[in-house]
Amino acid sequence: MSNSAKADSVLALHRFGMGPRPGSIAAVGTDPRGALIAELDRPLVLTAAAALPSSAKAYRTVADANARRTARAKQAQQQAKKQQMAAAPVMSEDQTQGQAQGQSADKDAAEMAAKQAAEAIPDPGRPIYLQEAKLRTEAALAADIGFAERLVWFWSNHFCVSANKIQSMSGAYEREAVRANTLGRFVDLLLAVEGHPAMLFYLDNLASMGANSTAGINRSRGLNENIAREIMELHTLGVRTGYTQDDVISFANVMTGWTLVPPGDNPEHGGAFTFNPRLHEPGAQTVLGKRYEQEDAEQGRAVLRDLAAHAATATHVATKLARHFVADEPPPALVAQMAKTFRDTEGDLKQVAIAMVSSDEAWRGPALKLKRPGEWVVGMVRATGITSVDPVRYTGGQELLGEALWRPPAPKGYPDDEASWIDGVGRRLDVANYFAERITGMADPQVIIEDVFGSEIAPEVKQAVGRAESRQQALALLFMSADFQRR
Amino acid sequence: MGSDNHLPTRRELLIGSGTLFAWSQMPRIARAEGRDPRLLVIVLRGALDGLGAVAPVGDADWISLRGDRALVLDGKSPALPLDAFFALNPAMPNLHRLYKSGKASIVHATATPYRERSHFDGQDVLESGFTRPGATASGWLNRALLALESGGRVDPRGSRALGIGSVTPLVVRGSAPVMTWVPQKLLPASQDTQNRLLDLYQHTDPKLASVLQARMKLASLDGAVGTGDPMSDDPTLAPPGIARVRAYFAEAAGTAARYLAKPDGPRVGAMGFVGWDTHIAEGAASGQLYNLLGALDGAFAAIETNMGDAWRETVVVVVTEFGRTARINGTQGTDHGTGTVAFLIGGGLAGGRVIADWPGLKPAQLFEDRDLKPTTDLRAVLKGLLRDHLRVEEKVLAETVFPGSADVRPMPGLVG
After folding, report:
1. Minimal Cα distance from B203: which residue of A?
2. Do A411 and A341 belong to one domain?
3. B330: which chain A residues are within 8 Å (Cβ-Cβ)?
4. Where along the chain is composition biased (Polar residues) (chain A) (predicted)?
5. Per-residue pLDDT averaged across A418-442, rounded?
């Protein structure tokens, strides 16, 4: 393979894939664009996912455990109180002070007993999160190039939920709603994520009810605007694209009733999506000037379909994709081409991805885009040829780098620009140093440079690696080099 | 509903927050006056409910507005009286004590010029200092620092201190060099490895070189960077409960104070705390907001303690992107609103006041019949502090720090 072909495949792997790994330059071959497009025709099938619980099942498991914890704690507390009553000595008058103290100690003891009893039943949410994290990470390590996986990561961040709020479902949500639709039509992706219980939970829609709904009419509870605002601002149209506070309220009314089956009463379907007509605001609603007369969940689906087809959505999505993959300030012509493809194909996301990698502008150098921590870490592990990870360590490392898996600080997801992440590069050194120490017996920096990178790396890096005082230091310098950090 | 079955709120979302970003110079004019002022800016991300933090208990419409969710003086957990009209959330005894001793002020019914309700645009306006979002890539604090003539570097070893942040907040982005610190949990790479990497970056990537250089400078400011076990099966990596939130706020703010207190440490810093977006079960009197405000109150105590003698010359200003709806929403929380509070604490203040041009709470007095109407421009407060505490010139404040704010006069008399 010629040097320039090698350089193009390395660029393809960094910019559009998960980074080079042993054998990946050959896998890309002489036609990087064709190889990227071909990968979209055979996305990974996560066979190990069959062993993981569905989001509803995961939710029920955590809910059941919590119910048992509460019951166990109550029982222990009552027991402790009974024992204290039985053991209480007869007090004389001058012991009043001591009695008060004794009571407070008894109360503490009862609370402690309750806490211990609850902790005897472990929280199943974290193991589920870790299994999901392992599955997702190993998929990225197993991919030949990883373009399809990168698209899953992109859309998962675009339509993020947070495991800090809904840990049990965070991984299954990505599999069920995002992964299944990233190469399909945007409208199907949108309907899947907004109707997913994890999203409805995350954006506070479960108990939102219309003022005139059956449930709302006699209660003080009512509407929550959160999901309506974030769908328009973050998921579809983009901020400042013309919708008003009234549109937010109307759309929030439309979305009332989109909730989940309470886990306590339904061992089969608890935690699954349901439309609850008792919560739904009756009657027509006007959103962005259009009147929606539909009854039930069809009303929300109709608004979502129109939002998916809105011109502002095409531009918003194309800009975000190009910014993520190509440049913080993506070439306007590239964005325009991708937005046009989005509109011409009614939001066919595979065609939009193909339009991106088919454009010469998406391939221009130099590689200035700073990898996000998640991309950088996975690239580091791929370069060593490692294909399985300890999810505790792995997710811990990502958290230390400021990009905890499925835990973005806000519904906007993690940012994509260099200014947000460059100050964290110093911390990457600690992680690179630690990783290099752990793998120093099994990874040879010279082999990585020559075989994995096809020697497509700056001569200064080669020199620094060659002169390093130890293999650990050589690996740390290699992982920290601009060739590894930028794409 | 199911929120009790899961970690319920965004208060848990602390990852990447609590980071200190600081300027390692001394303001020259203040220095010439024989002062050595410290300023710490704390951004509460997610929009703090000002009415849940500082309640207008003297307003006849208060109870009818919030019903049994209203903080009151004779409630189950009684609010702490500030004056005849306002009372403080009971989670904040430290702030109350500081207020009573004249070392804290509260600005109420305040807001930036932003009047929409997007968190992200709201924070952009709050941090950029411009009147509209997306206008610039730098923050008002950074531009104020740029305008301040340096009275000498406080880091005797060099021009730039060093960074290990994760996500740099806009308020400190810009051309004035700032150093960053985040709570450290990994053993750092050796000095030699850092030197070699710096050399490599200097030959291949100047931007990465400057970031690494800044970090190395900070590390050489001894003492404040802790070390710990590297990534182990560490239970503290699990999502935090409120005890961890309290500990995290106190550690982050306390460490910031230790840096600022050092004779050779920075003088101006900024940090952020997330988790204030209380759409569901806000819990001002006993739930999530109460807990968060308690954690913030603990952070105030940590700052006061760790500042030591420098506390006398310290001002801490706590701001948020906007407030929340005046009424409780359908899920016992509050939605995005407008007017809110700002907290000022520090030994350098002429405090003990609630500064408010109270707009009232009747429906017609609310902004768009839903939010507390803002009557004090937050920029007036910030400009007052920057002018009187750090000695940033008024003209610079109006033109470059908060462009287009010439008609927003710096609020006088905030500092002593």
Report:
1. A460
2. no
3. 207-209, 211, 216, 221-224
4. 93-104
5. 85
